[in-house]
Specification:
The chain is α/β, with parallel strands linked by helices and 287 residues long. It folds into 2 domains: 3-168, Ankyrin repeat-containing domain (Serine Threonine Protein Phosphatase 5, Tetratricopeptide repeat, Alpha Horseshoe), CATH 1.25.40; 175-286, P-loop containing nucleotide triphosphate hydrolases (Rossmann fold), CATH 3.40.50.300. The chain has helices spanning 3-13, 16-22, 40-47, 50-58, 74-80, 84-92, 108-111, 116-124, 140-149, 156-168, 187-196, 245-256, 274-286; strands at residues 33-34, 38-39, 175-181, 220-227, 231-238, 261-266. Helix 3 runs antiparallel to helix 4 and helix 5 (74-80) packs antiparallel against helix 6 (84-92). The termini are far apart.
Length: 287
């Protein structure tokens, strides 16, 4: 048996000690997989090996977004085996999409429906929807009900608790996000990235090499988005030229009457007057 095969076998069997010993010895761990689909990173996520998962991503450059057998992501593997620490790391440090679906149309929450810890964590992120339907029309909540009827783990109280929270904070409500900044600081590029990652295959934190963006030079452009990372938002892209400052202040005041908002102030930290720009926009924002 080759060194690569022995390493793969250790991962597949869940032999942590042997896997850690062999991993530095193999060449190209990114190319080792079961039947060409389930990679070492998938197996590490399945096994709940947070240390090995981190090493595979940071040291060996394995892709945390790669798909395994059946189109499953690392989140699917971790959720199915109730490894919350791995879920936390993948979602918040590696920006993996908790609403990614496999070839059956199932999200990680679908696969976690019978595991209390994973269900509670995934719902607590605010990024997972218990009403999302798979290819059979089944929701995670329905799968949890079926599990309860079979006498398995009862996760229904967890779903109910988070559903009650959503009822008090309706999912169709939108948050104003006000994007402001001086010309040339990359504000239009950030607006483009937020729009492009709303529902596309690339998640917000992993968007790279943005080009061809035409800066917006007049007025305000509102975008109403159901963003898979940011939630339900209305993104207001404000032109950065100084002649619009007074009108911007008036619009901001009207937008925020009776509701809150989030300001994204974009400045070029390489410029000498970056702090001055930031102070200037903070002044506009609170006028």
């Amino acid at each position: 048996m080759s060194l690569e095969s022995r390493c793969l076998d250790a991962f597949d069997r869940g032999d942590h000690e042997e896997a850690v010993r062999l991993l530095p010895l193999v060449e190209g761990p990114t190319g080792i997989s079961l039947s060409g689909h389930t990679s070492l990173l998938h197996l590490s996520s399945r096994n709940g090996w947070l240390d090995v998962t981190k090493d595979l991503i940071t040291q060996y450059r394995c892709d945390p977004h790669e798909r395994g057998e059946g189109g499953r992501t690392c989140l699917h593997y971790a959720a199915r085996h109730d490894h919350v620490d791995v879920l936390k790391y993948l979602i918040f440090e590696r920006h993996c999409d908790p609403m990614a679906t496999d070839t059956m149309g199932q999200t990680p929450l679908h696969t976690a429906a019978a595991f209390s810890r994973s269900v509670k964590y995934l719902l607590s992120t605010g990024k997972c929807h218990s009403s999302a339907k798979d290819n059979r029309g089944k929701t995670p909540l329905q799968l949890a009900q079926e599990e309860q009827q079979r006498g398995g783990t009862d996760t229904l109280p967890i779903f109910k608790n988070f559903n009650d929270i959503k009822i008090s904070h309706p999912v169709d409500s939108y948050v104003n996000i006000l994007l402001v900044g001086n010309p040339g600081t990359g504000k239009s590029t950030l607006s483009h990235v937020i729009n492009e990652t709303a529902i596309g295959p690339v998640v917000l934190g992993s968007f790279r090499n943005v080009g061809g963006v035409v800066p917006y030079t007049a007025g305000i452009i509102p975008y109403k988005l159901q963003h898979r990372t940011l939630g339900n938002i209305i993104l207001h892209d404000f032109a950065g030229h100084s002649k619009y400052y007074s009108s911007n202040s008036a619009v901001i005041e009207n937008l925020l009457q009776g509701s809150g908002g989030v300001f994204l102030i974009v400045v070029n930290i390489l410029e000498k007057e970056a702090v001055k720009q930031l102070h200037q926009w903070l002044t506009v924002s609170v006028m």
